[in-house]
């Protein structure tokens, strides 16, 4: 991933990011330095928090935690939990299917960005877009979360 530009954010921009992430995921992003990174050929922009890729923007949406950011800041809302059988496929970037889901935040609405965590240790494996409301995610068949970013992809591996 080739960096197009990189700059420190103003305090009002940091406040907006912190408020948006708190609204979506119920977490407070605590950090000293916030840097905005724009890439040449990526469908997202990135915010480094103390040098770590913690927040990203997808399709000009509001800011949302990356997989690494979600594992650092432990989201309380917007979480879809999958069973052990789904870990390897979700970690490889597959969309999430109903049979693998054991629990989903009922406040999730179709179109929302969500974090996908595994049930045993609560580690976040991916970030995706909900295709149905949270109360309709658990079931027997069908795709319910489109994967956007996952463990091991370019964004996950990005470092400065």
TrEMBL record:
SMART domains named in the record: PUA (SM00359)
Pfam families: PUA (PF01472)
GO BP terms in the entry: formation of translation preinitiation complex
GO molecular function: RNA binding
Residues covered by the PUA domain: 78-152
Name used for this protein in its record: RNA-binding protein
